[in-house]
Request: fold
Amino acid sequence: MKFWDQYRLRLERKRRRARSLRKRRELTPAALNVSKIQKNDVILFSTLRNEKIRLPFFFEYYRKMGVNHFCLVDNGSDDGTLEYLISQPDVSVWHTTRSYKRAGFGMDWLNGLLGAYAVGHWCLIVDVDEFFVYPHCDTRPIQALTHWLDQSSTRSFGTQLVDTYPKGKISEAHYRPGDNPMTVSDHFDAGNYYYERNRKYGNLWIQGGARQRGFFAGRPAFAPALNKIPLVKWKRGNVFVSSTHNLLPRSLNLVYAHNGGQRASGCLVHTKFLEMFSTKTKEELARKQHYAASREYNSYSKHRGGKHDLWNGQSVKYKDWRQLETLGLMSSGDWA
Amino acid sequence: MELGFVILAHENLHRVGALVEYLANQNCAVSLHIDAHTPIDASNELRDRFKANKHVMFTDSIHCEWGRFSLVQASLSAAELLLQRHPNIGHVALISGSCLPIRPIKQFKHFLSRHKATDFIQSVSVEKDKWVQDGLNEERFTLFFPVSWKRHRYTFDKLVQAQRLFGVNRQIPIHIEPHTGSQWWCLTGHTLRAIVNDPNRGVNDSYFKHCWIPDESYFQTLVRNHSERIESRSLTFAKFDAQGKPFILYDDHLDAISKSDAFFVRKVWAGADEMYAQLLAENRDKVPMSKVGAKSIDEHFELAIERRTSGGVGYFNAGRFPGGHAGSLGQTVAPFAVHYGLNDLYPDITEWLCKSSDMVCHGHLFHRQKVEFATGAKNFLGGLDGNVKIRNRNPYGFLQNILWNDRTNKHSFQFDLRDHQAVRTRLIQDHNARIIVIREGWILKFLAAKKLGKDVPSYARQLQDMERAFLLELEQQDTRAQITMFNLQEVLENPRDILTCALGILDDVAKPALIDMPKMVDLQGVNKAIRDLKNAGLTLETVALVKSAGEKRSGEMPRSTPKLVQ
Reply:
């Protein structure tokens, strides 16, 4: 990489950081428990809106994994999400009604919070419908992983998003608070993914899966990116560029082995497709707050929203991380 | 006293405390060195805890650094203290603060009582054998290493390079014959005392001070001068990964490590509550030393190294994307066959291949209008969609997915110039591709068009140009595919060859003779087609057949040999 390119990335990083500091002012603390954060704690960051129904299981899953604190941005929920979050002891909540889109789809807010509270910590940046799955996650807490990453002088951990969907119509996948969404929306595409590399930022660019074939078959190049780097040991000056797909400095994106072989990596099980999906689609389309003129939601709406059935004869039922490793979607690498 | 321990600790002192207490309760002497980098209040707490315990002693803390003599210095001073307090000690074992005993100490003592005069230390001659996996071996002993590798990697590497350039070769003291081995040993009190009180101690220390990683060579070398009986193996199980750092053990390794034939393991994760609770329980039962599965934990980690360095052939994920010089390797999971132009000669070739071989025989996977999976379905294993637009977005990725998703089977597919061509370049560079080519096979397409229309010759010329470009590509230097070339004439004269070749291309053993042949396209008029094309101004390699194909006597025909281009 040329010196000039490196310098341009450095300028971009500075610009994004300055922007995140400015945008951080849009946030009002609603419940501030950050003083409870201890050295070596793992902190989860997320932006959410009207997700109350998903929250009980979300907290159960990540607390069990060993996440010590949650830093969440509530973007103008009106279903009681904010009140629910405030009642949690290990959650710090910031509230804003400002534009999600103009805050880089929430990333400016999170970059701001990460810069303020995450420096020196391992942090997990996921959406409320995404469940982090890493090698041995059934027997080892997340601290085992972060300790090993520290020992390996690695500062970030790569994952691939795996979209799950129910067998049958999406609108008939009934979900009650506290249910495990991975047992309701429980099928996925096992080997339908395409891998490229983004030269500028150095990250992988993964597309495919159920969303590509189900909603973007006519324009596959526009299908959502499935590469995510959700686990990062935060250092002052780091910024996410586009969602958690890539970040700066560029070295944090090099989570994969490029000389043959494979490094340890995980998956994010994405349980978007539950019965709430069609109402959510309508709502989000009306708000027009999503990436690239909400083309993803436009596409969902065109495909009859919730009436769509993503299941086809080849779908695989989700079991656990070992299944994902056997299928080649993740790897335990040399973390045995 | 029968047994003493020298423990080197530098972190997680609460775990070290538990280990020390366990050992002291088993009536073992413990001499502890705490790294001076450890926070002072934590180390004071540990000292206070064992102040009254007569089995536990502490040496002065020094700053230890990986790869430097300070580690040996720490072990030596702790050993000296132990020998001073317990002059009649039987055996002394060196372990780290993150080690745990796999077997009860009672069992260990019993084992040592049967080997009273044996020193258990891995000691491999540097000249005769190579113990060091990666990195410096003999040069550890003949160069100078004034800076730390961990802190000054660049300077370290440059200094090594410079010394190589100037041919630096340190004089090894005459009584020293370099040996290396695992850092963790168990020596008899007698041998250890001899090393500590060596009349050449001053020479030894000042020599090893400038060696690289002396903790893996100091005792390992000197034991050769003093021991009566050496068993060259470590009683502590420790395994290193490709980066050279020890594998860490977790609760889920408990089963596998208890089968190991060692007495101690390292390195245990400080958060492995279950493992600490079980292995440090008082009154543990004897853990049998069976030979069965003794290597299972070792194999487990060997597999991990392999996965990290060369695993994942044929698929990608967030942790794997081979590029650069590694790009051509490990792209597809297994050999696959590509039949170029066979379909023109045999319209039913796919069905025939399916019937006559154990391959999964796809039609034109890269057909411009539709994807012809072998199953005839719209999608394939793994949820792979037969949508042409999705396929065309990354055609080679599409092929990789097919091969990986159905990796238990062998695959073949039809391909010709009328298909979507984007996959071609990568196909030719794939060392797993086995391509059968019939040159000028496209002529047969003109049999179907009974008489040559006006635009047909120009279409033919176009096809011919494309084929020439394709054949040129096959001759490029980066071609890694195995290519078997036939020309149309050979095939028409002796169709058996190409069919046998197509059937057996993915097998190592030859197939039995063909029984039923696929139906060939009607060759009535092949001569006329060739003539017409020639008259239209094309230069063709194929000449008109002497006899019509229907009357040919294959037994009399000279057998043509396919040309193999690597």
In short: Residues 548-566 of chain B have pLDDT under 50 and may be disordered. The longest strand of chain B covers residues 3-9.
